[in-house]
From TrEMBL:
Coiled coil location: none
UniProt GO molecular function: dihydroneopterin aldolase activity
Enzyme class: lyase
Pathway(s) it belongs to: Cofactor biosynthesis; tetrahydrofolate biosynthesis; 2-amino-4-hydroxy-6-hydroxymethyl-7,8-dihydropteridine diphosphate from 7,8-dihydroneopterin triphosphate: step 3/4
Enzyme Commission number: 4.1.2.25
Organism: Flavobacterium bomense
Catalysed reactions, as listed in the record: 7,8-dihydroneopterin = 6-hydroxymethyl-7,8-dihydropterin + glycolaldehyde
Task of the protein: Catalyzes the conversion of 7,8-dihydroneopterin to 6-hydroxymethyl-7,8-dihydropterin.
Gene Ontology CC entries for this record: cytoplasm
Name of this chain's protein: 7,8-dihydroneopterin aldolase
Keyword Chloroplast among UniProt keywords: no
Encoding gene, per UniProt annotation: folB
NCBIfam families: folB, folB_dom
Length: 119
């Protein structure tokens, strides 16, 4: 088995419960970790024998472009879509961070993290 990590995927998205957040948007960072079997690809050196991290990045960027009120909702969509499109993945951890959230204080980021196993 093995782990593939995509760190600090940056997007400008429009998530949030406030009307202004949907209009103005803000910066986000997504971190993704997936568990899959990397033994075959480590021997064959062939992309078809592994999980394509370009596809993982594409899924994250597309789902981040769809507005949600809650970070939990967008993270769940990312999890669901990865499991649907890439059957070789057995576990996913996704963390979605909103940078400089409008919460009335000096907060660098707020992050939610979800972890799911293929059922």
């Amino acid at each position: 088995m093995g782990i593939i990590k995509l760190k600090n995927i940056r997007t400008y998205s429009y998530h949030g419960c406030l009307i202004e957040e949907g209009k103005i948007g803000s910066d986000y960072i997504v971190n993704l970790e997936v568990k899959t079997d990397l033994r075959k690809s480590s021997i064959t050196d062939d992309l078809k024998d592994t999980v394509d991290y370009v596809l993982l990045n594409h899924i994250v960027v597309e789902e981040m472009a769809i507005r949600s009120d809650l970070l939990e909702h967008v993270a769940h969509r990312i999890l669901t879509r990865i499991f649907e499109e890439i059957p070789e993945i057995s576990r996913i951890i996704v963390a979605v961070s909103k940078l400089n959230p409008p919460i009335g204080g000096d907060v660098e980021a707020v992050t939610i993290e979800l972890e799911e196993y293929r059922s």
